[in-house]
């Protein structure tokens, strides 16, 4: 009986972990992603984005890997933003990207999360989230053993991934795609 109960708890835990990474964004989450993006875009006189399940699935594929780095085209040749934090929600993730607006200099434009969010030629977005363990543990530690120990103690974080099509941050096109 005890073995069955333990097996059930383990199976249920694995199922719940799998559901987060398989089902993708709910209708309410899709709306939240779009609302947050479009609020920022309207301030920049950019058209509203539309949701793309294809981009959302690509974002989920990358988020499921729980790797704190860009996919570099592994899930598609789209623009991409990443955010992660222990108490981060959808609005907080997009706010982090939007807050980079203060660093944007139209006379010397540089790639940023902000410029991808507001890029005028971008028409579609798809996003995903995954709770990851040890995502930031060990960052900056020189020994692998110390890094692994640190990762084990690090709290789980939510990692947000958004994919954008057409991609933004195209050299030579900032003037017509980013208002400031």
TrEMBL record:
Domain SCP: 28-172
InterPro entries found in the cross-reference section: CAP_dom, CAP_sf, CRISP-related
Keyword Signal: yes
Keyword terms, alphabetized: Signal
Source organism superkingdom: Eukaryota
Pfam families linked to this entry: CAP (PF00188)
Signal peptide segment: 1-24
Designated name of the protein: PR-1-like protein
Organism from which the protein derives: Ephemerocybe angulata
């Amino acid at each position: 009986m005890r073995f069955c109960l333990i097996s059930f708890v383990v199976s249920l835990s694995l199922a719940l972990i799998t559901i987060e990474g398989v089902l993708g964004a709910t209708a309410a989450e899709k709306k939240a992603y779009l609302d947050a993006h479009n609020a920022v875009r309207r301030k920049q006189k950019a058209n509203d984005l539309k949701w793309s399940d294809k981009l959302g699935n690509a974002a989920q594929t990358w988020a499921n890997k729980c790797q704190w780095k860009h996919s570099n085209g592994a899930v598609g040749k789209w623009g991409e933003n990443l955010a992660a934090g222990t108490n981060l929600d959808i609005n907080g993730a997009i706010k982090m990207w939007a807050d980079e607006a203060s660093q944007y200099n139209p006379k010397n434009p540089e790639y940023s999360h902000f410029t991808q969010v507001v890029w005028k030629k971008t028409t579609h977005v798809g996003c995903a989230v995954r709770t990851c363990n040890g995502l930031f543990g060990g960052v900056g530690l020189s020994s692998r053993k110390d890094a692994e120990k640190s990762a084990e103690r690090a709290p789980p974080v939510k990692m947000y991934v958004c994919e954008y099509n057409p991609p933004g941050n195209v050299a030579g096109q900032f003037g017509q795609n980013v208002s400031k």
